[in-house]
Amino acid sequence: MSSSDAGPGVSEDLAYPTLSQRQLVHLFDLGVVEDVTAGHVIHRIGDKTYDLVVIDDGEVEVVREATADAPEEVIATFGPGAFLGELGLLTGQTVFLSARAVRSSRIYRISAENFRNLMETEAEIADIILAAFRARRAILKYAAAQTIEIIGSSFSAESMSLRTYVARLELPHSWLDVDTSEAKFLMDVSALSVDDLPAVLLPGEKLVKATPAELATKLGLSYRKGRSADVDLVVVGGGPAGLAATVNGSSEGLATVMLDTVGPGGQAAASSRIENYLGFPQGLSGAELTRRASAQVLKFGANIYSPSTVVAIRTSGDRLTVLLSDGVEIPARAAIVATGARYRSLPIDRWNEFEHAGIYYAATEMEARSCARKEVAVVGGANSAGQAALFLAGRGCMVNLVVRGEDLSARMSSYLINRISVHPRIAVHASTEVTELQGGASLEAIRLTNSSHHEETVVSCCGLFCFIGAYPASGWLNGCCCTDGKGFICTGSHIPDENLGRQWEILGRDPLPFETSVPGIFAVGDVRYGSTKRVAAAVGEGASAISSVHQVIGARL
């Protein structure tokens, strides 16, 4: 096997493993043999599905086809004993690289059904394949970046939505700011105007004024009617709680579908470093936690669909129906609500104008690149704000940490306070609020008002990172489930007796742990009343709820 570029930090041995003869024979037994001649296309860009292909004899090359700004390129060449494929085989993504025989070859095609059974029942081979697929996706983020080209403005909310979507799903892509010469060249040859932005260039087609939903549909990553038959469990929300519920549900034999409005990760994906998560003494980023969890979801055969916005859950007898914003309905036996919370904003003039044009709710590599070595502000006094301040300072930014309270000790962990207090590029502004935003097309400065000394200061600011908490994302339920006065969903023993209707008398039982006032609908994570707002707690709740789900589904069979 040879590759054009293994990418930074990616092991070729992991991406292109050598299988034992026993493992190869087992794969051959699962497949259908096919003899192909030189030049035969095994799968091509745009195919909706494709098989896992194992080579017995011959040679096959994987090719990125020519684009407006780059000629055709051979990404990798595979020989006897190798298998083709990457994460798209598990996610259902439309084929974005072609594969063709270099010379006469004998291959075995393993159907999607047999491949899925293999991944669920053959742990040894499944682990090798999954590790290879993940490593190959990391390679393709560089080698196949031109298969999805996004053109837009760094200060456009619509462009930021697209970039966030492709980043969350780890889709190989390239980003071109409209002001660069590369973007202007592509716009000329693709007949695009500024009014068409953000635009996405795909092999053979383009999307103008593109949205994540349109891109997902083109890539085959959105939920389509009939795509997942006989669903046992629908998990609404892809944060740590939702991911944990999906992993545990699917690993325990439940046909599970996970839906999220943006992409997997939730608020945790915005965390630059989580240092108190068990088993990671050096900490890990929210993005890495999301990558690992998403890989587990795919390993156990669950499906992730995003962006998929759920607008209601309807009940009829012992069945539920999850309704999507596009009118698609998903029948299921149970549902877990893990929609978490929505970010709070400051009540300041021009706030909406500067969102994603200098105001951010996450501090990841993507946002940091826009502000590297410049002056920024972080607003908030909890751990997420402290982690963001340290992360940005580590990227060379001068950070103004703005805290409404008298000091950081009320809500921030001591290890973060100690690091912040000695960091030369972080200035803490206690008893202070942001009272004005200044700038033209993007944020340029902010006014700080100190309530203790009645002083006002204007400081330069190209990026304001807001971490002032969130409110529960439960409004879409439209009163379907009992909530407290703030909108958090009540579950189990926290449900007041007056909210338990006659249906519970008929069932002859009380709500199970994590079960809402509606039988068969559960809530976990930040959206649940009484939950601990920490990543580890959310993961525990998502996993634990599956026991209750099994009890409900078992009683309904």
Describe the structure.
This protein has 16 helices and 29 strands. The protein has 557 residues and is α/β, with parallel strands linked by helices. Helix 10 (286-299) links the parallel strand 14 (256-259) and strand 15. Helices cover 29% and strands 25% of the residues. Strands 13, 14, 15, 16, 17, 18 and 29 form a 7-stranded mixed beta sheet that branches. A 5-stranded antiparallel beta sheet has the order 1-6-5-7-3, with no helix packed on it. It has a 5-stranded parallel beta sheet with strand order 20-27-21-22-23.
Can you give me a brief rundown of this structure?
The chain is α/β, with parallel strands linked by helices.
SSE inventory with pairings:
Elements lengths: L1 E2 L8 H4 L5 H10 L1 E5 L4 E3 L8 E6 L2 E5 L8 E6 L9 H4 L6 E4 L3 E6 L1 H10 L1 H21 L5 E4 L4 H12 L5 E4 L3 H9 L9 E4 L2 E3 L4 H8 L11 E6 L3 H12 L4 E4 L26 H14 L3 E3 L4 E7 L2 E6 L4 E9 L3 E3 L7 H4 L4 E2 L4 H7 L3 E5 L3 H12 L3 E5 L11 H9 L3 E4 L2 E8 L3 E8 L4 E6 L2 E4 L3 E3 L29 H6 L13 E3 L11 H22 L1
Parallel strand pairs: 9-10, 13-14, 13-18, 14-15, 18-29, 20-27, 21-22, 21-27, 22-23
Antiparallel strand pairs: 1-6, 2-8, 3-7, 4-8, 5-6, 5-7, 9-11, 11-12, 16-17, 17-18, 19-28, 24-25, 25-26
Helix pairs in contact: 4-5, 9-10, 9-16, 13-14
